[in-house]
Amino acid sequence: MGLLNRNWDGKNAGSPDNGIFGSTISRDHESDDEMVWKYSFSNVKKGAKIFVKPTQRAILLINNEYVSTIEGGQTFDLYDSSNIPLLGGVLNFATGGETPYPVDIWFVNVETHRNMLWATGKMHVRDWETNIPAELYCNGSCVIKIKDVELFYKTYIGTKHGFSVTELYDNMRNIIKEEVIVHILGAIEKDHIPLYDFQGNMRKFSTEIEVLLQSEAFDERGIELIKFAIGEVDFSEEFKEAIKELRTKEKFYSSEAYLRKEQFEIMKQAAANPGAGVMMGVGMGAGMGAGMGQSMGSMMQNAMGSVNQQNVPPPPLPAQIYAVINGIQSGPLSLDALQSNIQQGLINKDTLVWKQGMTAWVAAASLPELSALLGAVPPPLPPV
């Protein structure tokens, strides 16, 4: 239902009788998409009243200048100057009951608007932990409402005759998209967040972005952001496959069969060179169960007779260590490979390394398994 005058049947639109004495100007929003609607006539006459519904606000402009906002849930007598003092000098009854200046009336829907959907599109990132490039996608929703009618009108309406929820959504989506991309990429870089752990940070990101959007974008437009949420996160198929392949390799290198093979190789080297027994046992990690530990301990006693006579305990299983060499993740690296890279100067005390069970990459010198290996390498020769 549109503009309502007494006994108005919709056929006298534009008639000089619009806004006659005792008539009531109101608006039933035709759809949920209607946010702002302008009363079509400026020849408002003596005795006209404005009825504003509880979910609306009405804006009065005289000669294109903002005069007042009428709150919802009341009937407003337009010609009662006590309602709006400014009207006393504007409304002139000597003109036959008509106003000498155009009076514009706008009805604004201040209901809460839900399901405003947004999406970022592709975000190009690199997983901090695995150094694998990826494409990250985010989408979500938010709930908004108009909180400052005057500010909203000045921002969006101007000379228009209406404004829809769809138009507002289209305008705000780009603002939301930009803020989400900047915040998420910045947080991943700053806090070194692994991409596989992104889901665990969604609530934190949502709260932070909601605060930023309200203070930096919504407040200045007269809009309240009631709720903001990141709904779904997805990654490119190439990244998923790369992670799957990496996890498969990690599973193999941590298997009992592989660990037994590595242990056997270390025992052979230690038996052939008893003096290196301690060095060869460094960094081998406790990755096996008690039964396997006893079995390997027995094997070590048989293979390292002379070493055992010096009270050297059986070495534990080797830890699987990854290292960043020349800016590229390498690994898992065996003890021989680690020692060789150290001797070649490719791994030093500041090289980033990681092993299973760690939550982040650390400097090589902080790993007990590598500190002895690093200490065995002589420092550079002094200048001649």
Structural summary, described in words:
The protein is of the alpha+beta class. It has four domains: 24-109, no CATH class; 113-240, Band 7 domain (Tetrahydropterin Synthase, Chain A, 2-Layer Sandwich), CATH 3.30.479; 254-309, no CATH class; 321-375, no CATH class. It has helices spanning 149-156, 165-191, 202-218, 237-253, 256-272, 277-281, 290-303, 305-309, 335-343, 368-375, and strands spanning 24-25, 34-38, 49-52, 56-62, 65-70, 74-77, 103-109, 113-119, 123-126, 133-146, 162-164, 223-235, 321-325, 328-333, 352-355, 362-363. The protein has a five-stranded antiparallel beta sheet with strand order 5-4-7-2-11. Strands 8, 9, 10 and 12 form a four-stranded antiparallel beta sheet that branches. It has a four-stranded antiparallel beta sheet with strand order 14-13-15-16. Helix 5 (256-272) runs parallel beside helix 7 (290-303). The longest helix is centred in the middle third of the chain and has 27 residues, at 165-191. The termini are far apart. Mean pLDDT is 75; it is low at 1-21, 276-297 and 303-310.
Give the arrangement of secondary structure elements:
Layout: E1 24-25, E2 34-38, E3 49-52, E4 56-62, E5 65-70, E6 74-77, E7 103-109, E8 113-119, E9 123-126, E10 133-146, H1 149-156, E11 162-164, H2 165-191, H3 202-218, E12 223-235, H4 237-253, H5 256-272, H6 277-281, H7 290-303, H8 305-309, E13 321-325, E14 328-333, H9 335-343, E15 352-355, E16 362-363, H10 368-375
Parallel strand pairs: 1-3
Antiparallel strand pairs: 2-7, 2-11, 3-6, 4-5, 4-7, 8-10, 9-10, 10-12, 13-14, 13-15, 15-16
Helix pairs in contact: 2-3, 5-7
